[in-house]
Amino acid sequence: MRKKADLPTKICPVCNRPFSWRKKWERDWDSVIYCSDACRTAGKGQKTTSKST
Fold first, then answer.
1. What InterPro entries would the database entry show (predicted)?
2. CA–CA dist 13, 16 (Å, integer)
């Protein structure tokens, strides 16, 4: 069994916090971008409203 410290990590582009690999992301870890559903929603909202003045 791996220790949590040995698991790969990424940085969430929305909250800039590190998050670790999870078993449910095993098959698509390369495509995981956000740490949570809340950050995914906020991240997609920022992209669509970035040109508003």
1. UCP037205
2. 5
Q: Spell out the alpha helix ranges (H) of the chain.
A: 37-48
- Mapped onto helix, strand or coil, the DSSP state of residue 18 is strand
- Which residue ranges make up each domain of the chain? 4-48
Read off φ and ψ for residue 5, nearest 5 degrees: -65, -20
End-to-end C-alpha distance for the chain, whole angstroms: 51
Closest CA relative to residue 20, chosen from 30, 31, 35: 35
pLDDT (tens digit, 9 = 90+) per residue, 2-17?
787 788 999 999 999 9
